[in-house]
Amino acid sequence: MKQVLLAALVVSILITSSCKKLEGDNQNLDATNQSVFDLMSTKSGSWWMYGNRNDTVFIRYATGKDTTKLGLKYSFYTRRDTITTTTSPEFFGKNEGKYLTLVDLDGNETNYINYVFWYDGKTSWTNDGEYNSGTILGKVIVTISSSIVQTGLTITQNGKTYTNVYHVHSTLKAGALNIDLGTLDIWFAKSIGIIREEADLNALGLYKNKYTDSLINYYIKP
Predict the structure, then answer these.
(1) 183, 181, 139: which is closest to 21 by C-alpha?
(2) Which residue pairs, CB below 8 angstroms and at least 24 apart, start in 139-142?
(3) N or C: where does the chain have the smaller number of CB atoms within 10 Å of the terminal CB?
C-alpha cells in the first residue's frame, strides 16, 4: 500500500496541489464506534507469509497488543522482510463496519492516514488522504475509490485453496486535476486475512510499479 501513496505524491508534488475538502469514508471516525478487529487473528503467535513482491518474502506477525493511533484503537502487528530482516509496524482496526489499516505516507512511521480497505455492507466507498509536501505547493490530496468486485470466491494459489474470498478493486487519483495513477486489487477471507494484493501504478511515467503479493502460508494461533 505504501507504493500506492508514493505514486500519488510523485505526481501531485510535481504538478499540482489541491484544496479539495477531505470527505472520504475514512474521515471523522468516532472512537466510540470501534469494535474488535475480526478479519484475521490478533493472537500472538499467529503469522502470515507472503511472496513475490520484487522477489522478496515478508511475514506478518500478530502481537496480541493494541495501540492508539489518530485517536483510534488499532491491533498492532509487525512485518519482517526475510531478506533484509528489517521490521516495520502495521496496524489494523474496525470502526462501525469499516475495516481499517494505517498507511505510512512518507516511510518515517510518523505521518499516517486511516485507510478503509473494506466497508462491510457497502458496495463502494472512498478514502481521502492529505500529505504535507513540505514545499510551496503545500498539502496534496489523494483519493482512493474502492468497490466490491465479487464475494464468495474460491481461490487456489501456492498449493492452497481459500473459500468465501472477497475481491476489492480500487482506483487512485491525485490533485485538483484528478490525475489517474493506477489501480489496487485486494483479495481477503474473514478469519484468515489478506490472501492477495496486486497493484498496477503509473504516475504519468514519473513513477511506475507493478507488483503482486500472494499468501504462501499462515498459522492461526488457537
Answers:
(1) 139
(2) 139/17, 139/18, 140/8, 140/9, 140/12, 140/13, 140/17, 140/18, 140/174, 140/175, 141/12, 141/18, 141/20, 141/22, 141/174, 141/175, 141/176, 142/5, 142/8, 142/9, 142/12, 142/172, 142/173, 142/174
(3) C
Pull the grid cell for residue 136: 510551496
Structural domains of the chain sorted by starting position, each given as residue range(s) with its CATH number in brackets: 2-215 (2.40.360)
Smallest Cα–Cα separation from 60: which of 41, 79, 73, 76? 79
State how far the alpha carbon of 4 is from the alpha carbons of 8, 38, 174, in Å: 7, 25, 11
The burial of 139, by beta-carbon neighbours within 10 Å (0-12 exposed, 13-18 middle, 19 or more buried), is given as middle
Burial class (CB in 10 A: 0-12, 13-18, 19+), 198: middle
Classify residue 123 by its DSSP letter.
S
Which residue reads 489494523 in cell numbers? 92
**Residue 158 φ/ψ region, left for φ over 0, alpha for ψ in the -120 to 50 degree band, beta for the rest:** left
38-81, pLDDT tens digit by residue? 999 999 999 999 998 667 899 999 999 999 999 999 999 999 99
Site of grid cell 516511510: 107
Query: Quick check: pTM over 0.85?
Result: yes
